[in-house]
Specification:
This protein has about 120 residues and is α/β, with parallel strands linked by helices. The chain has 2 domains: about 60 residues; about 40 residues, no CATH class. Helices cover about 50% and strands about 15% of the residues. It is globular.
């Protein structure tokens, strides 16, 4: 019997409960892809608040791995941007090695879009 997520399931970690983009994210996915949303519940939108949020992301990513999603998307630029691109890559590599699940962040999708468009510099 076919299920609603016969193409697989994406685990999403949204930065806050007020993220209205979940519906838009789901609309972008092909039919048959399921979504399990979780929330980092970032309360302090400051540099320290974004740095502190990593623990919440770690917990949510671990839970999504336990559930058995096929792909993970921890969202929200600031919690990763405050650490820099290299640290973001290291965090994702550690998660992927530990949980054996492909993971991509918002920053990673932006970098890939710039590469696909062959954009070398977008600030003048």
């Amino acid at each position: 019997m076919a299920t609603a997520s016969w193409r697989g399931t994406v685990g999403v970690v949204k930065p806050t409960y007020g993220s209205g983009s979940l519906v838009e994210f789901i609309r972008l996915l092909p039919e048959g892809v399921g979504v399990i949303p979780m929330y980092a519940d970032i309360k302090q939108h400051t540099e320290q608040g974004y740095l502190d949020a990593l623990e919440s992301y770690n917990e949510r990513v671990a839970e999504l791995a336990r559930i058995g999603v096929d792909l993970m998307h921890p969202e929200g630029g600031p919690p990763f941007m405050v650490r820099g691109h290299k640290s973001e890559q290291e965090i994702v590599q550690q998660w992927e090695a530990k949980y054996k699940v492909s993971i991509f962040t918002s920053g990673m999708t932006q970098v890939e879009a710039l590469r696909a468009l062959q954009i070398k510099k977008f600030v003048s």
